[in-house]
Each structure stands twice: as structure tokens, then as C-alpha cells.
TrEMBL record:
Organism: Desulfamplus magnetovallimortis
Transmembrane segments: none
Family annotation (InterPro entries): P-loop_NTPase, Sulfotransferase_dom
Superkingdom of this protein's organism: Bacteria
The Sulfotransferase domain, residue ranges: 32-208
Pfam families the record matches: Sulfotransfer_1 (PF00685)
Taxon lineage: Bacteria, Pseudomonadati, Thermodesulfobacteriota, Desulfobacteria, Desulfobacterales
Gene3D superfamilies: P-loop containing nucleotide triphosphate hydrolases
Name of this protein: Sulfotransferase domain-containing protein
One annotated GO molecular function: sulfotransferase activity
Length: 218
């Protein structure tokens, strides 16, 4: 877990072709929509899509757009201290907030959540992370891609089991790769999960395949 934490923190920031939904039909205004996943798995893209669809993002804009995320990171600085300070989270009801997968365990049980969990081809994630760290002048974790991939896969398995056991959480697994291949089909699934609260055509409009720069064969 230490190496995994170091990897996630250094970026500040698969289960490809797999979608599973759990929906109990709640009013979206009572829920907090959470976009989660590993760094470089498409979480910022999903936040932008939700915003276009009509779900207000709960962000602070402290992390400005850059070459790695020219459309913005859609982050909230307070998420980093979620474990020790979460009284403010009620403000996110009916909105979308991005929370790195490792911090999901710190979500207080007094709220209801709809979690959109992003997955991406693992080789693409590792390549994208490596390019990002290189641009930031960082050396990474001094761990091989194979070792890091195993740790990431183990983490993903653990977090899905945890999500599945939380009575206050509904979740959907979404493939970044599939959204870019079949946007309408996948956006319809996501909208159904959010109780048909979004404008699907506007979500499609903000998809930018030009930003799909690290591609690997499935």
C-alpha cells in the first residue's frame, strides 16, 4: 500500500470493457455524485461530461489546466484531508466531486453516494502517468510497470469489494476506452444511473478524442 500511495500522491492526481450498475432509484438531489478511479483513467473527462450534462461540479479551480489536462482537472483541494475533515461534504449534495480511488474509504456513511468508477487499459494508464511525471520532472516510484500494475489491479479489486458492501453507495464501472469507442451507448448507461438527470447530447459534444494520446492495443 505504501508504494501505491506514493504513486497516487506523486501524480496528485483494467477493467476495460466492463460495466456493472447498481441502482436503487434515489433522487439525485439527495446524493453526492463521486467520480473516481486511478490517476489518468479518465476522471477529469467524466467530470467535464457531467458538467456539460447538467450536474454541477464541486471544485475549487486551484489546480489550473496544463498540457496533461488542457480542459482542467476538476479537483477540490479539501479532498486530500477527507479522512480528518469531512463536515463540508454536505455541500456536495446534488453535485459531482472527483475523489481518487484510494480516498473512497474515507467517505462518511451519513451521506448517500453515486460513484462513477473509471477504468482504462492499464498499459495506457501507466504510460500516461509516466509521461505526466516526466513533464513534471519527477522520477516516479523506482518500481517496474509490472509491479505497479499488479498493485493497481489488487487495489481495484479491493475497492470494488468495498463499494459493493456499502449500503449507502451505488456504483457503476465505466470504461474510458469504451466511452470513446461507443459514446452514445455508454453515456446512456451513465445517465440511467444518474436517474436520467442529464442532457446526453451535450455530454457527447464535449468528448475530445484528440486528447486520447496514450493508446495501447486491448
Amino acid at each position: 500500500m505504501g508504494i501505491l500511495r506514493k504513486s497516487l500522491n506523486s501524480l496528485h492526481g483494467s477493467k476495460s470493457n466492463f460495466i456493472k450498475t447498481v441502482n436503487r432509484g434515489k433522487n439525485i438531489n439527495k446524493d453526492i455524485v463521486v467520480v473516481s478511479g486511478l490517476p489518468r483513467s479518465g476522471t477529469s473527462m467524466m467530470m467535464r461530461m457531467l458538467e456539460a450534462g447538467g450536474i454541477e461540479p464541486f471544485i475549487d479551480n486551484k489546480r489550473v489546466p496544463d498540457e496533461d489536462n488542457p480542459n482542467g482537472y476538476y479537483e477540490l483541494e479539501r479532498i486530500k484531508s477527507l479522512e480528518r475533515d469531512n463536515e463540508w461534504l454536505y455541500e456536495a449534495k446534488g453535485k459531482a466531486v472527483k475523489i481518487i480511488s484510494m480516498l473512497l474509504y474515507n467517505l462518511p456513511s451519513r451521506y448517500s453516494y453515486k460513484v462513477i468508477f473509471m477504468h482504462r487499459n492499464m498499459d495506457e494508464i501507466l504510460l500516461s502517468q509516466s509521461k505526466m511525471l516526466l513533464r513534471k520532472g519527477k522520477n516516479g516510484n523506482h518500481i517496474s510497470d509490472k509491479e505497479l500494475s499488479v498493485k493497481f489491479f489488487n487495489h481495484l479489486g479491493e475497492i470494488e469489494k468495498w463499494l459493493d458492501n456499502q449500503s449507502n453507495i451505488e456504483f457503476i464501472n465505466v470504461s474510458y476506452n469504451d466511452i470513446l469507442k461507443e459514446p452514445l451507448k455508454n453515456i446512456t448507461n451513465i445517465n440511467r444511473f444518474i436517474n436520467n438527470a442529464m442532457d446526453e447530447s451535450k455530454m457527447v459534444d464535449v468528448l475530445d478524442s484528440a486528447l486520447y494520446r496514450q493508446r495501447c492495443d486491448s
